[in-house]
Amino acid sequence: xxxxxxxxxxxxxxxxxxxxxxxxxxxxxxxxxxxxxxxxxxxxxxxxxxxxxxxxxxxxxxxxxxxxxxxxxxxxxxxxxxxxxxxxxxxxxxxxxxxxxxxxxxxxxxxxxxxxxxxxxxxxxxxxxxxxxxxxxxxxxxxxxxxxxxxxxxxxxxxxxxxxxxxxxxxxxxxxxxxxxxxxxxxxxxxxxxxxxxxxxxxxxxxxxxxxxxxxxxxxxxxxxxxxxxxx
Length: 232
Prior knowledge:
This protein is of the alpha/beta class. It has a single domain (2-188), classed as HUPs (Rossmann fold), CATH 3.40.50.620. It has 7 helices and 5 strands, in the order βαβαβααβαβαα.
């Protein structure tokens, strides 16, 4: 069976790709440029991951209207990218890195493509348990979107969104990646930098902490590499 995998180029989408590949799906990979600060590095990672897993069918989508809409520090340079908030000290608020309703747009494009190419599954590396509190990374959101797909596609179409990481902690994702021998060095998680990862944005912090908890060194280069598991 064919499956579409949404590949940002980050650690979670890399492990998701490996899991889908391990399950024997014929993969088609989709990447979205939405005007994010690190779009060039993410695209480079996407292409490297596709090459590694020999994914020939690829779709690179330009959705920079999200940058025009704004409202996120990932696309609006006048906003400050949220720093590490590993203990949820922002009081349950949504970090500035949240891109308003982004994943709904990504999924809509993925469903359109899946319907055209005959893919029955869509894999996305969303994580609820150890995410930054993004509302479009919750399991209930994906369950609801599966209902939307059933109602909005052709009667004979059967497409299901799969979120294999949704209930995992980041450290569990690292362990799963090690088990599947994923090339972590090809992935990119930093929200701010394209040369070396900054090491201090919330995404870098969660990634570094996960590798620390597993006892393995993250293979990508960082400008700073703080020790996060001792911080409270």
